[in-house]
Amino acid sequence: MKHYKGLARRAVAAVGIAAALAVPAIGSAADDTIKIGYIDPLSGPFANVGDAGLKHFKYLAERINADGGILGKDVEIIGYDNKSSAQESLQILREAADEGVHYVTQGNGSHVGGALVDGVEKHNRRNPDNRMVFLNYAAVDPALTGEKCSFWHFRFDANSAMKLQAITDYVAEQEDIKKVFLINMDYSHGQAISRIAKEMLKEKRPDIEIVGDVLHPVGKVKDFSPYVSQIQSSGADTVISGNWGNDLSLLVKAGSQAGLDTDWYTYYAGGLGTPTALGKAGAGHVKMVTEWQENLVEDYDAPELREILEEFEQRYDGIEFYYLRIKTEMDMLQKAMEEAGSTEPLAVAQALEGMTMETPFGTVTMREQDHQLLQPLFISTFSEDYPKYDSEGTGIGWVMDAKLEAADTAVDSVCEMKRPSS
User: Fold this and answer.
1) Could you give the CA distance from residue 58 to residue 99 in angstroms, rounded to a whole number?
2) Which residues, other chains included, contact 162 with Cβ-Cβ below 8 Å and sequence gap of 6+?
3) Is the pLDDT at 8 greater than 90, yes or no?
4) Residue 35 and residue 76: Cα distance in Å, rounded?
5) Can you give the pTM of this predicted structure?
6) Which one of 22, 54, 199, 279 has the fewest beta carbons within 10 angstroms of its own beta carbon?
7) Residue 357 Ramachandran class (φ > 0 left, ψ -120 to 50 alpha, else beta)
8) 414 C-beta neighbours (distance < 10 Å), count
């Protein structure tokens, strides 16, 4: 059970991945089932991240089905292990199409997201009677809703530029920040952060010095102490990183072990092992930008979310309800199907365009121009003085520092989308 403030700590349960989750169930669903193919790592260095995401989707699908499904149809989530490989993901996409999957979702790795955007586009051109829609819950390279945008792709996470806009707006107000070190994973996501962060900081705080800008291999670094030494030697007072999964947990753990005295501005420090790696050394020093953290249910009246997070964490001991955007994705997909009166991909995609929906934190909008979701974002700090919910049994939780309204997170897009005529 989830620990609340004032209760004894518990050890975080080890994350196990059932072999059955890694193998798609071929022919297991009836024709009246809405199949969603989940394409993410279920093995390898990011298996814990993929497993957590799959559990979110399965849990939320169960809630929808218990309430009658969508248009009388049950939702089935089929887990596919892509091993973090773009090539493997394209092979899975072909298999999923053959199995009657019309909706695929993915989030871990913009290199995979980019491959799936291209793959779905090509598939739909060749198979107009068997189209697919790609629902992206976490691949945040701005290009995916920019120059590489597609009618068949919808992103439910803020992209890197939007998150950096929030971070740099906040950083610009902190007069004690003088030297910033950038460390990111060496692929499109990390490269975008490196480029955009420097541009935004130069515009908003030209006095801040960028004292380091490092890109490291993805999922291959076991010992981040040499990188931490670079940060220490640079004299940085602040680190900005878009790392995720073990590449974030191992980085911040190495920093804690070395006594690195900097503040961290992150995208993904809120769960999946990172709070455990941070421990008390991270309290007051680690911040994140996100659409959600659990203590927001204390700041806003959100009884449904309180029920969901507590029920989810009781069911999956050791995994927190981390991805609110997965709930947003499932809610908007259901709303689009009901408004269209159909589960047919073109009709659903057209209903998703421009859709708005109310959440406990404000209105969210699927921007018609580029299919980028606009939603409120929050800056939060890892703190021992948290309202109710701690993180991963650490006795430390997240406290909101600032909120950016959905409209304030928007950045310009260069998307020139080609829409199907029929």
Assistant:
1) 19
2) 372, 377, 409, 410, 411
3) no
4) 5
5) 0.89
6) 199
7) beta
8) 13
